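Page header: ASSEMBLY MODEL / two components / 797 residues total.
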Amino acid sequence: MRVPESVYKELKEYCARLARRGYVTAHGGNASIRSGNIMWITRHASSLENLRPEDVIQVYIDKPSSFDAIASTETIVHREIYRRTPNLAVLHAHPPHTVAMSFFVEELIPPDSEGYYVLKRVPVVEGSPGSPELAENVANALKKYHAVIVRAHGVFAAAKFMDIAYQYICMVEHSAKILWLTECLKILGREIIRPRVF
Amino acid sequence: MSEIFGWTGRALLVDLSTGITKRIELEREVLLKFMGGRGLGAKIVYDGVDPRTDPFHRDNILVFAVGPLTATKVYTSGRYCVVSKSPLTGGLFYSSSGGFFGASLKKAGYDAIIIRGRASDSVYLYIDDEEVKLEKASHLWGKGTKEVREILKRDLGREFRVVCIGPAGENLVRYACIVNDISNAAGRGGLGAVMGSKNLKAIAVRGSRKVRVADPDALNDLMEKAKIRVIWNPILDKALAYYGTSSLVNIINEHGMLPTRNFQLGYFEEADAISGETLRERIFVKRASCYNCPVACKRITRTKSMGGEGPEYETIGSLGSMLMIGDIEKVAEINYLCNDLGLDTISTGVTIACAMELSERGVIDEKIEWGDAEKVKELVGKIAAREGIGNELAEGSKRFAEKYGMSECAMHVKGLELAMYDPRGAFGQALSYATSNRGGCHLNAYMIAVEVLGVPYLMDRFSPTGKPPIVVYLQNLAAAIDSMVLCKFMAFEFDDEMFANFLSAVTGENYTQETVVKTGERIWNLERVFNIRAGIEPSQDTLPSRLLSPLQNGPCKGKVPPLRQMLQEYYYVRGWREDGIPTAEKLKELGIEPPEGWE
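Prediction written out in full:
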């Protein structure tokens, strides 16, 4: 079960980046990398700020195993994403602006050009942490979109490469932040000038 | 007694020497201070048994006790505790069991059965609500636990719940257990042998009353919340539900902590062949549940030639990796045998592992080879019957190894064989083992939860930092849970606040987080005082020398728990003297009258 060094380094690097950005707090968030019929996923209650080799757990894609007990609570969601999409890396974080926006919208349409260009839109779904319902909703959304927001919870992003999944999460949060700032400015009486070219 | 909820306020006193049974009132103050189950039993034994009494003497007391939450809507409330002076450790010992017996005892109207004396001939105790009698058990004597339960249920009625001992208890094997329902067992400490020493083969009980709950609406609300929390919990709702406790085999092995070859190794190459996955694939028949339990972690299993319940994780370790048996069917069959003969599987496996090592070293003449499952089956039969070398093994690993001058090969603490977590891989568990009032027990502070499973959070398993206060807290909480009486698996989700809320709703008393934990602390100290007076000195708060030396391979290579350092802090956190003796002030603070001459 010992995690390959390259897998560990990749997970450690991107988990630390999420923590540095404040997208996960304390023991929140999780990440995984797929390799054939297995995935390497962060351990339940591990700290993404400083991931240790034994904080990475190997579980199967096509069936549960006893290691599910110590793997991330969201293992079921990661598993379903890999089953339904061709992605090889999944990140889950709780970026604050995104979570705040999730209380007010059914989908996030990035107001910034780069966010819109890459993400187009980011749906908001519901489901309790670690539940089959959440796994279903998130995996279905990721068949069509790069990222999905879970209301009052956080965001999942999936891609072929970890770096790209990380980029998606950053862009979702950036777009949510821009949206929040523009809404604030509107409240302050500023008139919005829509871009002629997007 | 004024109006009472939760408790029945009554106990059944049984004097086997005279054959007299009578109902007695329990003092409200005692129930409030010691709650029930383990705490109530400890108080009764503490007050009624001289700590120096031979556990097999008629003056030893055997208590079966339930708690204020027993037979209520609270999950896992069908359990009971047995409390007595242990023939294995010599200390005040409790053993808890699931199933349905506890709920039936409570519904019959009793918080406890207090058994004294010794019957001149074998008997069983019959309880049908108010009707209580001692019946001859000569037709049951010598029979296995499965047959005894079947005979009594057939003769008395299927609604009767039965606890009984097997031949091992009759023959005073020091780690004989008490078995009930679906092979649930009050497994540890040899309390089945105490029952055997009293010539008490079984207790059959039927109860028809309802437990009075002070605030049913509040309890209903709590259970709605509890239901959601259990469903969300990955350990309870997924791992335990799907694989049972055997889900731990691969996890603990990968952490380099699966006791192998009598704790000489922490990694078993063939672990997957005895894992939860393999159990499910090869011998699983169906899940089974104890009284009012949503988890249903029990496994009904069947091999090619036998059937039964289990094996549980601890059994897989002690009868599998410890003995180098990498075959789940063989492990299951030895387990069925132990259950039927009434033997604690952990102590049986660890004692046989000790014998295998002594055989390998040429210390004993008997040829017992690692991995020889057929030989193990033969030994299990001999232990229960105390035949040949079985008579020596029936004394437990400590006495057996001492006899041959090989104490270092006995993997025990205070005489109780260690459970299946190598403490070199979890320093908090090392401290928990060393300080347990029971001895080598994993259940008094299950540090594996925080050091491996990440429940409720994950601590560095190789660091002593912060471990003593957590061990103290978990020991106190475990004592309280054992006194309510609930299954400790509930602590994977519920905290002391939730337990306090359950207690308040059921009893109408104002329980808080503090009072729950304080009750546990009181029980812990009471047990400690009894044990010290029984001769279990604080110097026994240690581990076998083998476990204070590093493993040479695997994930725990080179690691040794800094036990002395942790013990100093542990005693400090407990408010005890530096030498591990509870102070008179601490006892008074907890409402325990210090024994005469206690400083």
